[in-house]
Fold this sequence. Notes:
The complex is a heterodimer. Chain A contains no helices and twelve strands. Chain A has strands at residues 3-5, 10-14, 19-21, 24-26, 32-38, 44-50, 56-58, 64-68, 73-78, 87-94, 103-104, 108-113. Chain A is globular, with a radius of gyration of 14 Å.
Amino acid sequence: AQSVTQPDIHITVSEGASLELRCNYSYGATPYLFWYVQSPGQGLQLLLKYFSGDTLVQGIKGFEAEFKRSQSSFNLRKPSVHWSDAAEYFCAVGSMEYGNKLVFGAGTILRVKS
Amino acid sequence: DSGVTQTPKHLITATGQRVTLRCSPRSGDLSVYWYQQSLDQGLQFLIQYYNGEERAKGNILERFSAQQFPDLHSELNLSSLELGDSALYFCASSVSGSPLHFGNGTRLTVT
């Protein structure tokens, strides 16, 4: 079965501190991996994606993620968090074999304290 | 702006009623996906259409149906609505092999 686990429901970090959001997946095909961000009342915005190649991928807004096949993980990182990063973050996995539809994790709500 | 347009933004209706949610994909995107986001179930894939044909089905109830028209816009029809159908319904579109781009969703409230 395909599944994505985001073990942290809520995370609070101080503005300027570093951030790491965890994501583990279980998938029966070659995975494509994504991180999306959702601000309250908004849709999902793509932060970054991994299809193949370099396992460290850069995204928008200063985010990056590293694909570790041996750990089935795709953790999201940011070196210095800004107050505007407060939102809910979703990890997702998909593949061409499964028609490109995505399986999402439950999300991690990020709170940024000043 | 993702380029995916969903209407209406909000919908309030009563149990037992039927509603239609509309989605216009990004220009050039042939695939449309529908997702339901609720507090207890999270983001659940409902159904995918590709160039007018159903491509994949997920956790879509029999009371729900969808279609994609020749101009590639899509509609999600929800009938015999129940309180538990209250959720945010997202449409996403993509071209083959590319990430999904999501609309801002339709918030459905069933009273």
